Amino acid sequence: METVILVPALATTARLWRPQIEALAGTHEVVVPALPGHGAAPGPFTLAAATRTVTAAIDAAAGPVLLCGISLGATVAALACLERPGRVGRLVLSGGVAHPPPALAVQRAISAVLPMAVLARIAGAQQGPDGAADLRAVGKGTYLAALRELAHLDLRPRLAGIDAPTLVVCGERDRVNLPLSRELAAGIPGAELRIIPGAGHLWNLEQPAEFTDLLRTR
C-alpha cells in the first residue's frame, strides 16, 4: 500500500488535509507530520527541524511514498526529498517556493504589527474556523519565525538534485506563486507543471475532490 505523506502549510495542522485524509482512508496509508511548533509538536520552528520531521515519516513508511506539500509544506517536502534520494516515489508540490518572493517582505512586515486576532480572522476567511484555531494555537512567534526562515531560503541551486518524479501545481488565482511554481518546475529534472483553473493558494480545500484525484492518478 502506498504511503501518502501530506505536509501542512504554515500555521496549520492535519485539519488542513481533512478532505484528503477522509477520501484516501482505506486505500492509502496517510501520514500528516506535525511541523515544529504546530499542534502538539514542540518548537522552535526551523526549516531544518521541519525537514527532519518529514524525513522521519519517510523513513517509517513500509512501502512506496507519495510526498505532497502545500505552501510552506511544499518547500519542506522538497527539502525532505533532497535528504532522501531514491526514497520518494512521487512528489507533489503545490504553491511552493524555492526562494522568497518580494511579497514575503511585505507579509512579514504586516504580520509583525497586526494583532493575533486580526491574523486569525484572515486565516479563518481562507480556511474556516479550523484555520483560525490552528493559527491561534501556533502563536505569532512561531508564525514569524517560519516567515523569517523562508526569507533566508534559496533552493534554486539544489533543485536539480530532486530525483523523484515531480508534479508542480499552482492555483490559477494564486498569482504571487505562479511564477515561483514555474521556476520550481523548470529547475526540477523532468517535472510537470499544472495550473489549476479557478483555484487559489490552498486549493485542496477549495476543490478537495480534484486535489485528491490528482494524488490518486499522478
Describe what is shown at a glance.
The protein has 9 helices and 6 strands, in the order βαβαβαβαααβαβαα. It has 218 residues and is of the alpha/beta class.
Q: If classified by CATH, what would the architecture be?
A: 3-Layer(aba) Sandwich
Strands of the widest sheet, in order across it, are 2-1-3-4-5-6
Compute the separation of the termini in Å.
Answer: 16 Å
* Major sheet summary line: 6 strands, parallel
Count of DSSP H/I helices: 9
**Low-pLDDT segments, ≥5 res:** none
Task: Please indicate the percent range of residues in DSSP E strands (runs of 2 or more).
Answer: 5-15%
CATH fold call: Rossmann fold
Structural class: alpha/beta
Instruction: Report the top-level CATH class.
Output: Alpha Beta
